[in-house]
Amino acid sequence: MANVRESASAPHPRTRLDDNFASPIRFSLMAGLGDGMELDFSALREMLQCGDSPLSKAIAHLQAAGYVVARKGTVGGRSRTWVRPTKTGSDAFAAHLQALREIVALSGGAEL
């Protein structure tokens, strides 16, 4: 019974979920970038199988949160955008994943 009391007083792991990753595109974007990886917009669009507008919105949201940095440049005279996670973004995403793992573990589910 002591375990029930202890778990009842500890906050549920869902309280540590980051709303910035609530969108499947934003979540997938951070997962796809990995730790410190930089990808260009077209590679992200293909990887995430989404349109330009939803991807642009996801990048803008994560950039406003300080989770990604987007830089613009040109390649062969064409404008390009590259996106990479910040340390803050990588840390926040890792914490979000840990909270998801703990939620699954509470239900006795298989480890993620």
From TrEMBL:
It comes from the Bacteria. InterPro entries: WH-like_DNA-bd_sf, WH_DNA-bd_dom, WH_DNA-bd_sf. Transmembrane segments: none annotated. Pfam families: HTH_34 (PF13601). Residues 25-104 form the Winged helix DNA-binding domain. This is Transcriptional regulator.
